[in-house]
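Lab notebook, bench 4. Still working through the backlog of constructs that have no structural model yet. Next entry is a single chain of 256 residues. Request: give me the C-alpha coordinates for it.
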Amino acid sequence: MPDPYRWLEDGEADEVRRWSEAQARHTRAVLDAEPSAAGIRERLRALFAIGLVSPPVARGGRYFHQRRAGDQEQPILYVREGREGEDRVLLDPAALSADRTSALDWWYPSDDGRLLAYGVSEGGSEKSVLRVRDVRAGQDLADVIPGTRACSLEWRTDGTGFFYTRYPEAGSVPAGEENYHRRVYAHTLGRDGREDPLVFGADRPPEDWPNVHLSPDGRWLAVSVSRGWTRTDVYLRDLAAPGAGFVTVVEGIDAI
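Model written out:
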Protein backbone atom coordinates (compact mmCIF):
# COMPACT_ATOMS: atom_id res chain seq x y z
CA MET A 1 0.00 0.00 0.00
CA PRO A 2 1.49 3.40 -0.94
CA ASP A 3 2.39 5.57 2.04
CA PRO A 4 3.47 8.98 0.69
CA TYR A 5 3.51 10.53 4.17
CA ARG A 6 5.86 8.10 5.93
CA TRP A 7 8.69 10.63 5.64
CA LEU A 8 6.80 12.86 8.10
CA GLU A 9 7.33 10.34 10.91
CA ASP A 10 10.91 11.49 11.44
CA GLY A 11 10.19 14.55 13.55
CA GLU A 12 13.89 15.43 13.82
CA ALA A 13 14.52 15.65 10.06
CA ASP A 14 15.12 19.15 8.67
CA GLU A 15 12.57 18.71 5.89
CA VAL A 16 9.92 17.64 8.41
CA ARG A 17 10.69 20.63 10.63
CA ARG A 18 10.38 22.99 7.67
CA TRP A 19 7.09 21.39 6.63
CA SER A 20 5.72 21.62 10.18
CA GLU A 21 6.75 25.25 10.55
CA ALA A 22 5.10 26.14 7.23
CA GLN A 23 1.91 24.37 8.28
CA ALA A 24 1.95 26.19 11.62
CA ARG A 25 2.36 29.57 9.93
CA HIS A 26 -0.52 28.86 7.55
CA THR A 27 -2.77 27.64 10.36
CA ARG A 28 -1.93 30.68 12.49
CA ALA A 29 -2.76 33.04 9.61
CA VAL A 30 -6.13 31.39 9.00
CA LEU A 31 -7.11 31.33 12.68
CA ASP A 32 -5.98 34.89 13.36
CA ALA A 33 -8.17 36.11 10.50
CA GLU A 34 -11.26 34.39 11.94
CA PRO A 35 -13.42 36.92 13.88
CA SER A 36 -14.74 34.27 16.28
CA ALA A 37 -11.28 32.90 17.18
CA ALA A 38 -10.89 35.00 20.33
CA GLY A 39 -14.23 33.85 21.72
CA ILE A 40 -13.48 30.21 20.97
CA ARG A 41 -10.08 30.54 22.63
CA GLU A 42 -11.60 31.95 25.82
CA ARG A 43 -14.28 29.27 25.90
CA LEU A 44 -11.70 26.51 25.52
CA ARG A 45 -9.53 28.08 28.23
CA ALA A 46 -12.49 28.03 30.62
CA LEU A 47 -13.31 24.41 29.81
CA PHE A 48 -9.71 23.24 30.27
CA ALA A 49 -9.58 25.06 33.62
CA ILE A 50 -12.09 22.57 35.00
CA GLY A 51 -9.34 19.98 35.44
CA LEU A 52 -9.73 16.21 35.48
CA VAL A 53 -9.67 13.14 37.72
CA SER A 54 -9.11 9.65 36.32
CA PRO A 55 -10.85 6.52 37.63
CA PRO A 56 -8.84 4.77 40.37
CA VAL A 57 -6.85 1.59 39.74
CA ALA A 58 -6.79 -0.73 42.77
CA ARG A 59 -3.77 -2.97 43.39
CA GLY A 60 -2.83 -4.67 46.64
CA GLY A 61 -4.88 -2.36 48.85
CA ARG A 62 -3.53 0.76 47.17
CA TYR A 63 -5.48 3.07 44.88
CA PHE A 64 -3.77 4.90 42.01
CA HIS A 65 -5.27 7.78 40.06
CA GLN A 66 -4.30 10.88 38.10
CA ARG A 67 -5.54 14.38 38.82
CA ARG A 68 -4.95 17.71 37.10
CA ALA A 69 -6.00 21.11 38.39
CA GLY A 70 -7.03 23.70 35.83
CA ASP A 71 -3.73 25.57 35.92
CA GLN A 72 -1.52 22.48 35.57
CA GLU A 73 0.00 21.43 32.26
CA GLN A 74 0.23 17.73 33.15
CA PRO A 75 -1.80 15.51 35.48
CA ILE A 76 -0.10 14.21 38.64
CA LEU A 77 -0.20 10.54 39.63
CA TYR A 78 -1.39 9.96 43.21
CA VAL A 79 -1.54 6.87 45.38
CA ARG A 80 -3.78 6.22 48.39
CA GLU A 81 -3.22 3.61 51.10
CA GLY A 82 -6.64 1.98 51.43
CA ARG A 83 -9.96 3.54 50.53
CA GLU A 84 -9.91 5.97 53.46
CA GLY A 85 -6.24 6.95 53.23
CA GLU A 86 -4.77 10.29 52.22
CA ASP A 87 -3.73 10.90 48.64
CA ARG A 88 0.04 11.10 48.20
CA VAL A 89 1.92 12.36 45.15
CA LEU A 90 3.65 9.39 43.59
CA LEU A 91 4.84 10.99 40.37
CA ASP A 92 4.69 14.60 39.21
CA PRO A 93 5.98 14.72 35.61
CA ALA A 94 6.49 18.50 35.73
CA ALA A 95 9.17 18.01 38.39
CA LEU A 96 11.20 15.68 36.18
CA SER A 97 12.62 18.33 33.83
CA ALA A 98 13.75 21.93 34.15
CA ASP A 99 11.44 23.15 31.36
CA ARG A 100 8.46 21.23 32.83
CA THR A 101 7.68 19.55 29.49
CA SER A 102 7.99 15.96 30.71
CA ALA A 103 4.82 13.91 30.26
CA LEU A 104 3.66 10.73 31.99
CA ASP A 105 2.59 8.69 28.96
CA TRP A 106 1.45 5.48 30.66
CA TRP A 107 1.72 3.58 33.96
CA TYR A 108 1.11 0.05 35.27
CA PRO A 109 1.13 -0.87 38.99
CA SER A 110 2.17 -4.41 39.92
CA ASP A 111 -0.50 -6.80 41.17
CA ASP A 112 0.50 -6.28 44.81
CA GLY A 113 0.78 -2.50 44.42
CA ARG A 114 4.42 -2.41 45.53
CA LEU A 115 5.91 -1.30 42.23
CA LEU A 116 4.94 0.96 39.36
CA ALA A 117 6.22 0.65 35.79
CA TYR A 118 5.80 3.95 33.99
CA GLY A 119 6.87 5.79 30.85
CA VAL A 120 7.94 9.43 30.59
CA SER A 121 8.71 11.38 27.42
CA GLU A 122 10.17 14.84 26.89
CA GLY A 123 8.96 17.85 24.95
CA GLY A 124 5.86 16.19 23.51
CA SER A 125 7.89 13.53 21.69
CA GLU A 126 5.87 10.58 23.12
CA LYS A 127 9.14 8.59 22.98
CA SER A 128 8.73 7.03 26.38
CA VAL A 129 11.52 5.74 28.60
CA LEU A 130 10.39 2.96 30.94
CA ARG A 131 11.30 3.15 34.63
CA VAL A 132 10.16 1.29 37.74
CA ARG A 133 9.27 3.07 40.99
CA ASP A 134 9.07 1.66 44.51
CA VAL A 135 5.63 2.90 45.58
CA ARG A 136 6.29 3.02 49.33
CA ALA A 137 9.70 4.71 49.04
CA GLY A 138 8.79 6.91 46.08
CA GLN A 139 12.16 6.14 44.50
CA ASP A 140 13.07 4.59 41.16
CA LEU A 141 14.87 1.29 40.80
CA ALA A 142 17.86 0.93 38.48
CA ASP A 143 15.78 -0.38 35.56
CA VAL A 144 15.71 2.03 32.58
CA ILE A 145 14.43 0.91 29.16
CA PRO A 146 14.08 3.36 26.23
CA GLY A 147 11.97 2.82 23.12
CA THR A 148 8.69 2.13 24.93
CA ARG A 149 6.28 4.51 23.21
CA ALA A 150 2.62 3.62 23.92
CA CYS A 151 3.86 0.60 25.86
CA SER A 152 1.66 -2.40 26.56
CA LEU A 153 2.80 -4.10 29.77
CA GLU A 154 1.73 -6.96 32.02
CA TRP A 155 3.38 -7.64 35.38
CA ARG A 156 4.21 -11.19 36.38
CA THR A 157 2.01 -12.16 39.31
CA ASP A 158 5.02 -12.44 41.66
CA GLY A 159 6.22 -8.93 40.79
CA THR A 160 9.68 -10.05 39.66
CA GLY A 161 9.30 -8.64 36.17
CA PHE A 162 6.93 -8.08 33.29
CA PHE A 163 6.17 -8.60 29.62
CA TYR A 164 6.20 -5.41 27.58
CA THR A 165 6.40 -3.92 24.09
CA ARG A 166 9.42 -2.05 22.80
CA TYR A 167 10.69 -0.42 19.62
CA PRO A 168 14.13 -1.10 18.10
CA GLU A 169 17.27 0.89 18.78
CA ALA A 170 18.41 3.27 16.06
CA GLY A 171 20.72 1.47 13.67
CA SER A 172 19.25 -1.97 14.33
CA VAL A 173 16.65 -1.56 11.56
CA PRO A 174 16.73 0.23 8.19
CA ALA A 175 16.74 4.02 8.42
CA GLY A 176 13.21 5.40 8.67
CA GLU A 177 11.78 2.26 10.29
CA GLU A 178 12.60 3.11 13.91
CA ASN A 179 8.89 3.73 14.62
CA TYR A 180 7.97 0.26 13.36
CA HIS A 181 9.02 -3.26 14.41
CA ARG A 182 7.17 -3.10 17.74
CA ARG A 183 7.95 -6.37 19.55
CA VAL A 184 7.21 -8.13 22.86
CA TYR A 185 9.99 -8.72 25.39
CA ALA A 186 10.29 -10.19 28.90
CA HIS A 187 12.04 -8.16 31.59
CA THR A 188 13.32 -9.35 34.96
CA LEU A 189 13.88 -6.59 37.50
CA GLY A 190 17.54 -5.69 37.87
CA ARG A 191 18.55 -6.96 34.43
CA ASP A 192 19.86 -4.69 31.69
CA GLY A 193 16.92 -4.14 29.34
CA ARG A 194 19.20 -4.65 26.34
CA GLU A 195 19.50 -8.28 27.42
CA ASP A 196 15.74 -8.88 27.63
CA PRO A 197 14.72 -11.89 25.54
CA LEU A 198 12.39 -11.40 22.60
CA VAL A 199 9.10 -13.16 23.33
CA PHE A 200 7.01 -12.37 20.27
CA GLY A 201 7.42 -10.63 16.93
CA ALA A 202 10.48 -12.09 15.24
CA ASP A 203 10.08 -12.01 11.45
CA ARG A 204 6.68 -10.34 11.76
CA PRO A 205 5.66 -7.46 9.43
CA PRO A 206 7.12 -4.16 10.68
CA GLU A 207 3.65 -2.55 10.80
CA ASP A 208 2.34 -5.02 13.41
CA TRP A 209 1.05 -3.47 16.64
CA PRO A 210 1.17 -6.16 19.37
CA ASN A 211 -0.30 -5.76 22.86
CA VAL A 212 0.16 -8.14 25.79
CA HIS A 213 -2.45 -9.70 28.10
CA LEU A 214 -1.81 -12.02 31.05
CA SER A 215 -4.38 -14.24 32.77
CA PRO A 216 -5.01 -13.47 36.48
CA ASP A 217 -3.16 -16.62 37.55
CA GLY A 218 -0.15 -15.68 35.41
CA ARG A 219 -0.25 -18.85 33.34
CA TRP A 220 -1.52 -17.71 29.96
CA LEU A 221 0.14 -14.98 27.93
CA ALA A 222 -1.95 -13.65 25.05
CA VAL A 223 -0.71 -11.30 22.36
CA SER A 224 -3.24 -9.40 20.27
CA VAL A 225 -1.80 -7.95 17.07
CA SER A 226 -3.53 -5.09 15.31
CA ARG A 227 -3.06 -5.22 11.55
CA GLY A 228 -4.33 -1.90 10.31
CA TRP A 229 -7.76 -0.76 11.50
CA THR A 230 -9.89 -3.75 10.55
CA ARG A 231 -8.03 -6.85 11.71
CA THR A 232 -6.71 -8.20 15.00
CA ASP A 233 -4.86 -11.52 15.23
CA VAL A 234 -4.59 -13.30 18.61
CA TYR A 235 -1.95 -15.75 19.83
CA LEU A 236 -1.71 -17.65 23.13
CA ARG A 237 1.18 -19.20 25.06
CA ASP A 238 1.11 -21.48 28.10
CA LEU A 239 3.83 -20.14 30.42
CA ALA A 240 3.51 -23.23 32.64
CA ALA A 241 4.73 -25.47 29.81
CA PRO A 242 8.52 -25.09 29.40
CA GLY A 243 9.47 -24.53 25.79
CA ALA A 244 5.90 -24.04 24.64
CA GLY A 245 5.41 -21.63 21.78
CA PHE A 246 2.46 -19.51 20.78
CA VAL A 247 -0.62 -21.12 19.29
CA THR A 248 -2.91 -19.23 16.96
CA VAL A 249 -6.34 -18.33 18.32
CA VAL A 250 -7.51 -16.24 15.39
CA GLU A 251 -5.62 -15.00 12.36
CA GLY A 252 -6.34 -13.47 8.99
CA ILE A 253 -9.96 -12.49 9.64
CA ASP A 254 -11.17 -8.93 9.14
CA ALA A 255 -12.53 -8.39 12.63
CA ILE A 256 -11.56 -6.35 15.67
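Notes after review: Residues 49-250 form a domain with the Methylamine Dehydrogenase; Chain H fold (CATH 2.130.10.120). The first helix runs from residue 14 to 32. Flag for follow-up if needed.
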